[in-house]
Amino acid sequence: MEEAIPFKNLHSREYQGHKKKVHSVAWNCNGLKVASGSVDQTARVWHIEPHGHGKVKDIELKGHTDSVDQLCWDPKHADLLATASGDKTVRVWDARSGKCSQQAELSGENINITYKPDGTHIAVGNRDDELTILDVRKFKAIHRRKFNYEVNEIAWNMTGEMFLATTGNGTVEILAYPSLLPLDTVMAHTAGCYCIAIDPMGRYFAVGSADSLVSLWDIKEMLCVRTFTKLEWPVRTISFNYTGDYIASASEDLFIDISNVQTGRSVHQIPCRAAMNSVEWNPKFNLLAYAGDDKNKYQADEETDNNEQTWRKLKKNQKNREH
């Protein structure tokens, strides 16, 4: 049964702390903390009361020496958070103390990170299209795979038997896990596929593309069920809400679109002041965290030729601009 969200009554709260733009936001498994990773080389953890409006406690995670491009929480532990940075390290932090508890030095500048749903492995993608799988206990690499095509976002399915990677060729590569042998290639879009999200009910995955479309795929049949067409710019980030009824997507359009997964219809737009880099629904409540390039806060030099570059290139070229 779909839970209708009273979109008319929604309001936004803004949390300020980062000195530069935020690339990634993620909720922990109990839905009470949200983490943000920024070009300012830090991550922050905010303690969120789902229905409260009091002063928000936040803790700063310091140690990376380059941009924190993506982060994700341990799916089984509400206080452990992994960050991927351009400084070639992956770090795990304890959100209670703000201390780094584990660290691995990898071969390249990391831009993507995701946990296996059972919390045992972490996958990391770097700027050179290399995938590394870390065993969480030993914090050592157990697989390395260099792809000869542009790999963008990565994800496991709910059972962890399938590993999905979106590519610059407009495909989603489906690999068996743990062997990483190819199972299928889904010809998803006519332009590069940037982002991927797995439906929490395990029925679908969604793909956001440079062609400004979001496609919804039946994970068993590997067939496209429908597309969402509201955005006009390359889709940078997508997320399903916890019931799997709604999907949020964002780009350089100055709004976040929320669409009904079953009908494909857009039901609400959240206005934004700038391009969005990351949206993520809370795993327990209808709360949406989002972050992007706030044009009001960071001056024009941060915004150089944003529109000429795709999101992937933007991530890849960020380094050259920020030094």
From TrEMBL:
Keywords: Repeat, WD repeat. SMART domains: WD40. Gene3D superfamilies: YVTN repeat-like/Quinoprotein amine dehydrogenase (2.130.10.10). CDD domains: WD40 (cd00200). WD repeats lie at residues 15-49, 61-103, 186-227. Pfam families: Beta-prop_THOC3. Residues 298-323 are annotated as: Disordered. Residues 312-323 have a biased composition (Basic residues). One of its GO terms (cellular component) is THO complex part of transcription export complex. GO terms for biological process: mRNA export from nucleus. Belongs to the THOC3 family. PANTHER family: THO COMPLEX SUBUNIT 3, THO COMPLEX SUBUNIT 3 THO3. This is WD40 repeat. The lineage of its organism: Eukaryota, Viridiplantae, Streptophyta, Embryophyta, Tracheophyta.
